[in-house]
Specification:
6-stranded parallel sheet, binds NADPH dihydro-nicotinamide-adenine-dinucleotide phosphate, single chain, 477 residues, 19 strands
């Protein structure tokens, strides 16, 4: 069960894959290998993985968040591969993606993630494996199961899967109505080690879901985290459960969370109000089907004065703008994640009895808002965090049924993960950025080319938008 130390840094000169890893990749690329074939493959002993280092957590001390550069703290190392324990699996990762938690981990904010690993390690001898001087990060993945530990029944070696990040084994009674309430619930690759930005990852079997057959590895890998989060926030009974006709204000409507929210709102027959920060992004929202779009930069909203007091005039101006678009109606639901900068405005603009559903605080977690607007108008704030297995499975099922589509706009090789995370940190990309782990190039892994072709406009929408092309041919699933 002991995991050895970091074996070495990977640089451009020693990018060569080990023979055993190449054999695994050849089996996947052949598309013919079966469970028995995978069982007879030797498990590689080491792999390339994206890591942060425990001895670097003070690297950015004294710098503002925006100046902390993931390219300086994310490394690609050669590391040992753990063996799967009970109810665990090793997955050969073809692709992963950048999430905002990749950014948080790389800039050691709000806390260095090594604290999470140390806490997790205290739970059991198996969990002790996670406490290492390096953290293999990444909370999304697609790939092929290589090994399963004792007790795994639903999946077997050779299965093509996507991986969601709810890491929980449900030994506490609290989690049995909703596993996100389990006191030992963690986010894989953020609060646990052996995440998805690696050639092989260690997961619990209840993180596995079937890979959507019409998508490439990188498209499939770019979805589980944000798609499942958006599903819980808007569709699940555990949060808002939007309905036909609801007006939903979506902050960051072409970001990761926002891009999926926009699809769920439109699919539900509800009305999105999209907030974005450029004309291109506004155009993308309209291409997807939104009628009401606010360009927050062009309209110059400043909800806070330089002295930290609220600029109520701009909050009111924002509310007025919403009413202009909607013929006088206020949002039934506000989909919140920017946090400190927008939260007071979100509370203000929600209709009486409306809901503000929040899962994050990108611009700061100490929120200030005028509570009179909340209590006098009987509004509700609902906290939400990732998704339980059922919710993640339903979100993945909608992708398999081609009712929800990827937001992938770019993909980078594993060794350029720092650059990819930098782009997300600086809000430079549309939708999602993928990372190729074992996949030698983009475009592989499609098992249903016909289904893909029927939706190719929707699948390539964000990629095309990143190139300045805004066209959408919509087809029914
Ligand atoms: P992205 O970077 O993909 O998108 C965020 C969007 O927010 C941007 O596209 C931007 O849109 C908008 N935004 C940024 N700053 C501001 C601002 N000051 N005011 C208004 N809008 C702003 O990130 P994600 O969507 O993946 O994640 C967003 C947050 O949610 C992160 O903090 C992340 O950690 C968290 N998160 C939490 C989850 C959970 O389970 N609790 C799950 C997933 C994410 P534009 O500039 O166009 O307005």
């Amino acid at each position: 069960m002991e995991i050895g130390p970091l074996i070495g840094r990977v640089d451009k000169e020693n990018l060569v894959m080990s023979g055993e890893m190449q054999t695994v990749l050849d089996a996947i690329l052949s598309e013919k290998a079966r469970a028995e074939d995978y069982a007879s493959l030797p498990t590689p002993k080491t792999m390339r993985a994206v890591t942060t280092h425990k001895d670097e957590v003070k690297k950015f001390e004294g710098l503002a968040s925006s100046e902390k550069d993931p390219r300086r703290s994310l490394h690609v190392d050669e590391v040992p591969i753990p063996e799967p324990g009970p109810n665990e699996a090793l997955v050969a990762v073809m692709a992963s993606s950048i999430n905002f938690n990749t950014v948080w981990t790389s800039i050691f904010e709000p806390l260095p993630t090594f604290q999470f690993l140390e806490r997790h390690a205290k739970r059991s001898p198996w969990d002790k494996r996670h406490d290492l001087p390096y953290h293999i990060i990444g909370s999304d993945g697609s790939g092929v199961i290589l090994r399963t530990g004792p007790g795994v029944t639903l999946f077997k070696p050779g299965d093509e899967v996507t991986i969601h990040c709810n890491y929980v084994d449900l030994q506490s009674p609290e989690g049995h109505d909703d596993s996100m309430l389990d006191p030992d619930q963690r986010i894989w690759g953020f609060e646990t080690n052996f995440g998805g930005l690696a050639e092989i990852t260690l997961v619990r079997a209840n993180q596995l879901m079937p890979k959507p057959p019409h998508l490439t590895w990188e498209e499939a890998a770019s979805m589980p985290l944000v798609n499942s989060t958006a599903y819980r926030m808007l569709v699940s009974h555990n949060a808002v459960q939007i309905k036909q006709g609801d007006i939903v204000l979506i902050w960051g409507a072409v970001g990761g969370l926002g891009g999926f929210a926009l699809q769920y709102v439109l699919n539900a027959g509800a009305f999105p109000i999209c907030v974005v920060s450029s004309e291109e992004r506004a155009k993308l929202c309209r291409t997807v089907g939104a009628r009401w779009v606010i360009d927050r930069k062009a309209e110059g909203y400043r909800f806070w004065n330089p002295d930290g007091t609220q600029n109520l005039a701009d909050v009111r101006r924002f509310g007025k703008r919403i009413r202009e678009l909607t013929d006088g109606e206020d949002p039934d639901v506000v989909y919140e994640h920017p946090g400190r900068e927008t939260f007071a405005a979100s509370v203000f603009v929600a209709r009486p009895g409306g809901k503000i559903v929040t899962c994050a605080s990108t611009t700061g977690y100490m929120h200030e808002y005028d509570n009179r607007y909340l209590w006098m108008n009987k509004k509700r704030i609902i906290g939400s965090h990732f998704a339980n297995y059922r919710e993640a499975w339903e979100a993945n099922r909608l992708v398999c049924k081609r009712a929800i589509h990827p937001l992938l706009s770019e993909a980078y090789p594993l060794e350029q993960t720092g650059e990819a995370a930098y782009r997300v940190h600086r809000n430079m990309a549309f939708g999602k950025i993928g990372v190729l782990c074992l996949a030698p190039r983009e475009g592989l892994g499609v098992r249903d080319p016909e289904g893909r072709q029927r939706h190719i406009g929707q699948i390539n929408l964000y990629r095309n938008a990143a190139k300045g092309e805004f066209r959408l041919v919509k087809t029914q699933p």
